[in-house]
Amino acid sequence: MRREKRKITGSIVLTTIIICLLVTIIVVTFYNLVYENHISVQSNVNGIRAYYISESAIDVLYNDINKVCEKAIEKYFEELFNYKIYYINLEGGVDYCPPDFQNILKTNILLNISSFNRTVNNPFSSYVHDHSYKITVDYVVSYNIIKADIIGRYLHARKPITVEFDLPTEIFDGVDEFGLPKLKIKPLKLIKIYQNLTI
């Protein structure tokens, strides 16, 4: 009878240990699944925040480029106005050669291109963790565009975006009362935006 009690007691202890091990394995597995899911969700949230940071940097860059373009447009129309007065006072005999808008714009862009490149750390006070954006700009003179690579970063998440801006151009808009060409300016325009897969 003692042997049977020992066998029963031993099998109960063994069964209890096995059940405890199984419960422990199930609890640890469940914990790991929940933890990995939490990490995955947090990574996605950080990626979305990094993307919004990149999008905000596009707005900053657009405003900076637009300010430079507006100065070039003001200078161009001032020079054009002065040239038209000069040309009208000549009363003929000279070819009409107004100022070239593209040269004025190109000069202004080239003088300011380095100010467009920047890295800004922690631009948003509502984001608690470390974040930043980096803008790298290239002026493609032959196509009259500015191409920019922007990287938004939030913690370890990075979202690179490439954008292209079509710079202002002059458009013929008929003739004025003196028979001289009237011009209008097509404004700065964001023409391409796409997210890069790797950085």
Q: Decide which structural class fits the backbone.
A: alpha+beta
Beta-sheet strand percentage?
25-35%
Extended strand count: 7
Main sheet, how many strands, which sense, barrel?
Answer: 5 strands, antiparallel
Provide the low-confidence segments as ranges: none
Strand order of the largest sheet: 1-2-3-4-7
Number of continuous helical runs: 2
The number of domains is: 1
Nearest-angstrom radius of gyration? 33 Å
| Envelope shape | rod-shaped
Distance between the termini: 75 Å
Following the backbone from N to C, one meets helices and strands in this order, namely HHEEEEEEE
Helix content: 40-55%
What is the overall pLDDT average?
89
Transmembrane segments: 12-34
Protein name: Type 4 fimbrial biogenesis protein PilX N-terminal domain-containing protein
Keywords: Membrane, Transmembrane, Transmembrane helix
Organism: Serpentinicella alkaliphila
Architecture overview:
The chain is an alpha+beta fold. The chain has one domain (37-195). It is 53% helix and 27% strand. A 5-stranded antiparallel beta sheet has the order 1-2-3-4-7. A hairpin with a 2-residue loop joins strand 3 and strand 4 (157-166).
Summarize the structure.
With 199 residues, this protein is of the alpha+beta class.
Features:
membrane; Type 4 fimbrial biogenesis protein PilX N-terminal domain-containing protein; transmembrane helix; two-stranded antiparallel ribbon; five-stranded antiparallel β-sheet; 199 residues; single chain; alpha+beta
Topology:
Blueprint: H1 2-90, H2 101-116, E1 118-121, E2 131-140, E3 145-154, E4 157-166, E5 169-175, E6 181-186, E7 189-195
Antiparallel strand pairs: 1-2, 2-3, 3-4, 4-7, 5-6
Helix pairs in contact: 1-2
